[in-house]
User: Fold these one by one.
Assistant:
Number 1:
Amino acid sequence: MSVFSELKHRICRFEMSPNFPVGGLVRWAERENLSPELLLEIARQVKAQLEVELEALQRCGKTSPTTLIQHEYWCFYAEQVCGFYRALLHHPESADRLALLEKLSGAESND
């Protein structure tokens, strides 16, 4: 599976919560030795594709409200992933991604 497909698969979860659980994604990225720059670029691509899909679903007129809401959450989650990696790149002093995650979320990582 490509990095794009894997990231999209991880973002497109069938649950809705106010915040995307970035911790698992960060651990996966570290295991795969993926750079923050690459992940930010791919997350932007995933977000762009999800937004195009959402627009097409909205124009269709036959899509259920539940499907539209779920797709809107996926767009929101993709933006949260982009935000995390933007923050990581703007805080170069934080070499430890999980430590930055804990700092930004105010919670400890469960790993």
Number 2:
Amino acid sequence: MGSPADIDQQGRQPAVVFEEAVVSRGCLHDRLHTYATAAPALRTTARRLHQEVDVSDNAIQPALLHHDLQPGHLLRELTGSRLLIDWELATFGDPRSDLARLAVRLDLDDPTPVRALASRRAPTAESRLHLYWRIHLLADATLSTDRAVRERAARRLLGIGVA
């Protein structure tokens, strides 16, 4: 750990936050490259999202992500307890990514309604949520084994002017 002067107001070392941002950005770039390779017709979309990742605020505090948040993984027991199942894709990252995935799975035309589920709202939260939403749409458009899901995601990307 660095000297007390190296610690910010939240008790984090700025170098650690920077390293997390670099890792996050690199991971997103890797995913976008995979999608572009899987569907050459969507390379322009992947390139635009890649550029948006580069200019966006990538300083995040990673949290545990489900990474496949969707209604089918949310259960309620008879006692009223709520459960989130199917954690095999869990990873650490930006919680807005899980919210964006949920918006894609709910087939929303805009991810903004899921922001109400966020525990805290950063000034850049909405733009970052939209970025993740488009990345998840691109993932579905390129890698889904269900043709209807691929086509719906591609249409949505075209409809928002990203493809």
Number 3:
Amino acid sequence: MRTSYDAPTTHSRPDWWGDDALCRKGGDYHPDQWFPEDWRRGVGKLDAITAKRVCARCPAITPCLEGALARREPVGIWGGLDPDERTQLSNDRGRAQAPAA
């Protein structure tokens, strides 16, 4: 009997932006830097700044941000933006798409 890990690969997996994301590849930073308890002050702010710097050079920044906006992600640094910045961007986009009165 063959177990599942012996089975040949028959289905390809679609490309996923996370495969290219720098935050998932390690480096000189810790994944918790993307989820500081308080990104507005203290050590959490320093972690958020570090995470945003990594995001700024990440090839997956756009799909990461768009996914976070679509999910209304309430925590963490996604696509280089913190929750407050994502809320502002969503609000700005909503106003831009609203029909003129």
Number 4:
Amino acid sequence: MERFTSFDFGLSGLTALFHQDWNRLGEVEEVVLSHLSVGEACIADEAQQKEAAALERDAAVLARSTLRDSQIELLFSMATAGNYSFQSGETGRLLLERIHSACRRWQQEYGGIPAESSPRWFSSDAMAEVRDVIGDTPLHLPDECRRYCGSAVSELRGALDACAHSASAELAFRLLLRIHLANFIPVEQSSWARYRMVAAEFSLGEELLSSLDFLVN
């Protein structure tokens, strides 16, 4: 099936909005609403509704997963290149709850539809393949990452693997791609071939993949 967009979407897509000046938009909820903005139309089209549904599902499945709060925080920090800093008392699940609540409010105003789905995206084979990719791909973190990531690569790998196993393999794969892009982590040629294969299995768009072309070596 063809996705509603050829670009990144859902939680991994949202993290791109947490750039250096993201807080000029306001709080987390305002970032979500900006991401889902309908502009001056005052009515949402089907693609915007599908985006909201994907984001709502990503936040929900990750919050319900067995990941520790520290693992969720690590994934979000890396996906935003350290531009989102968790404050004292704030946890990964509290952040996901805020994102989820903002999505639900948007859906109540503009209409909600089911998130796109396919049985193969949630199959045991897909999960096994993504976990293998996460385990095998080299993740050479640039020195700059140490400014906001004090964790070892093994901990990042473990958080991605836990996401694939207990939340969503498709989300874990999108987060892996986002983490590469946000942190300028090189992609080995052997890994790139597998990335393209997995992306095809998840029907992910060409624009999402092509955004990483400059990292392939």
